[in-house]
Amino acid sequence: MASSTLAVLEKLTAEWAGQIEFLEESDVEFFQAIELRLVSRIRFLANEPVAESLLRAANRHHVYVADQPVSEVGAIELLRYVMEQSISFDYHRYGNLGSRSNEKRAETL
């Protein structure tokens, strides 16, 4: 991104996205960050194919790569960033009782 574009983006998002850090790196620095596990997710904005060497490095270190075109629908775009979490105090959410499998249970209704 051009520096002027980045400056405008930072100014426009300062109030609601103050925690977002814009970082410019060379390809070598970016690969080093992946190798050092400083990167957990990569979002590509261009419609150009992603370099295979980058995909291999990301794959080796379990880094999520989103290279699909950016969606204009925020709810769809945000699906690439949401990490699902399910909490159950009684049983495993898929029905696996694990160590509780031998417990006596009430009759089914």
Describe the structure.
By secondary structure, the chain is mainly α. It has a domain of 59 residues. Helix content is 30%, strand content 6%. The chain has a two-stranded parallel ribbon. Helix 3 links the parallel strand 1 and strand 2.
Quick structural gist:
The chain contains 4 helices and 2 strands, in the order ααβαβα.
Keywords:
109 residues, mainly alpha, 30% helix, 6% strand
Shape: elongated
The total of helices stands at 4
Helix content: 25-40%
Strand content: 5-15%
How large, in whole angstroms, is the Cα Rg?
A: 21 Å
Mean pLDDT, as a whole number? 82
For the secondary structure, the number of strands is 2
Unreliably modeled segments = none
In angstroms, what separates the terminal alpha carbons?
Answer: 62 Å
H/E element sequence: HHEHEH
Structural class: mainly alpha
Q: Quick one: biggest sheet?
A: 2 strands, parallel
Strand order of the largest sheet: 1-2
Strand and helix layout:
Layout: H1 3-12, H2 27-35, E1 41-43, H3 52-60, E2 64-66, H4 74-78
Parallel strand pairs: 1-2
